[in-house]
Design goal:
Strand order of the largest sheet: 1-2-3-4-5-6-7
Number of helices: 6
Helix content: 10-25%
Distance between the termini: 25 Å
Length: about 240
């Protein structure tokens, strides 16, 4: 009885953050389901296709992907072994040119460029540091090296920001329906800085990711009354 009581109490103690769960979004082309896996790794399913974004250890990935999107060269975003494991005949990999030096099958997409894949339109958005830099003064993420992505499917825009601060290119985005926003120092930005950036481009839904060690409740509270729905998901399952 005591064990049951403790387990029930522990369940009640879980904060407003949901357990890792699939989010479903309606579009004109049918539903899109997005599953948080770990840190920056997510799986998207729509129209019978599976897309992985930044499959990299320790994220547990399985099955096969029709499309793989990679944002940057760092090990929490680019993992050649995981790309190989997820690939099958016909799998497409889209990534920045810096990634394509290692993931040689990747089709390079530069900041500002747009490409199409099946029913998806994919636009690369700059991701970089402007204030939070290495002790040497060099940015953790150079402008032009990595990509965030706006993915349009059935008229709905999904934005995966990648490792970035609230750069002007992010703040200038329009008509974003769902935004996945990073917040972890020293590599990206604080939850408060992330909220300030989100207020500038006003997505309908904002979801923190890539937030290890940060208090995402600060992000949520800062956006109260902004008209942006904040969903807190568990990107760090035990």
């Amino acid at each position: 009885m005591k064990l049951h009581t403790l387990l029930f109490a522990a369940a009640l103690a879980v904060p407003t953050m949901a357990l890792a769960q699939t989010q479903s979004f309606s579009t004109n082309a049918g539903p899109v389901q997005i599953t948080p896996i770990y840190h920056a790794t997510a799986r998207i399913t729509a129209g019978g296709n599976t897309i992985y974004i930044d499959p990299a250890k320790p994220a547990k990935v399985d099955g096969k992907a029709d499309l793989i999107l990679i944002t940057d060269i760092h090990g929490d975003h680019m993992d050649a072994a995981d790309v190989t494991a997820l690939s099958k005949e016909g799998t497409t990999v889209i990534a920045p040119a810096a990634v394509a030096k290692t993931i040689t099958q990747a089709k390079p997409l530069a900041n500002g460029e747009t490409t199409s894949w099946k029913s998806w339109k994919i636009t690369a958005v700059p991701m970089y540091n402007i204030n939070h830099n290495q002790p040497s003064g060099a940015p953790y993420h150079d402008k032009g090296r990595g990509n965030g992505y706006v993915l349009n499917y059935g008229g709905t825009n999904f934005y995966f920001a990648g490792d970035t601060e609230g750069v002007p290119e992010m703040r200038a985005l329009k008509n974003i329906d769902v935004a996945f926003i990073p917040m972890n120092l020293p590599y990206t930005m604080t939850p408060a800085e992330a909220a300030d950036a989100v207020k500038a481009f006003k997505p309908k839904v904002a979801i923190p990711y890539h937030y290890k060690g940060q208090d995402v409740e600060v992000f949520k509270k800062a956006l109260e009354g902004s008209g942006v729905e904040v969903r807190l998901l568990n990107w760090y399952p035990e």
